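subagent[fold] <- orchestrator: predict structure for attached chain, return tokens only, no commentary.
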Amino acid sequence: MDRLQAMKIFERVVEEGGFAAAARAMDMSPPVVTRMVAELEQHLGTRLLQRTTRKLALTDAGESYLQRVRAILHEIDDAEAAAAASTRDLRGTIRIVAAPVLATNFLAPMVAMWHAHYPKLMLDISMDAYASSRVDEFDVTIMVAGEDFDANIVARPLVQGEAIVVASPDYLERRGIPREPQDLVHHDYLRDSSAPVRLQSGPGRKLRLQSLRADVPDEEVDAPAVLQSVSTELLMRAAVDGAGVAVTSRLLAEEHLARGELVHILPGWIFSRYTIYAALPSGRMLPARTRVFLDFLTEHVPRAVAEKSGHLS
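subagent[fold] -> orchestrator:
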């Protein structure tokens, strides 16, 4: 048995969600893929996958083994990259996870530029609304954290911003313009269910707003939610269409504000300040390809933000 090949096949089976899909992705026959995984399990003396007619699932041993396998395969890629003659010859795959809104608005616009600089380095981008919980599974995690962020991980800040309250002109014409935070109790709230609990606290998950004046305390508002989602873009779309009041990044709202599709309400208040980070798995030596990608992000994300909004917001 080719153990290295078996490890690659096992990893691909998990990523593709099945033997047939992995076989297609690797241009192999399904029986060969199945046999290689079975031989790997026999060699290890334990079952890695639970097979049913409807789905494939990792066993506890399989979950642990997969993490080790990925680390080993990454090290092999790193060794090959280190043997390259120059930075432009770096090759391999960088596995990234990001919240959908960050993947769409920050990473996707940079793919063409990245490929022009590093044509042999492929970006494999996964999307997860709770990307910050998966830092150890990927080479780079693009995540958002608040001012109190103090996690025990290695993270490089990329850009800072604020979350503000917005609504469409049509909605405000129908329902009136809130002048104070407590006015929001009479408005329809489009709630981001992925926002930190400390900012939406209590049984009713009240909306907490921070004054831009240091001498004014935070206010909690029992704004009635009519829609809840982890999708920032869904909530933004609903706000533009007049469904209610939403909290969103000033940066993401910038184009809608400029076109008059949204109005910034309660301008003396913000929902939060945040930082977008590129986080790295702990306890792993930083591969050359990952270091290059981090440098690329550090240079181009702030520049893209500045070009889009005219300032870092």
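orchestrator: received. Logging for downstream: The first strand starts at residue 49 and ends at 51. Residues 197-204 have pLDDT under 50 and may be disordered.
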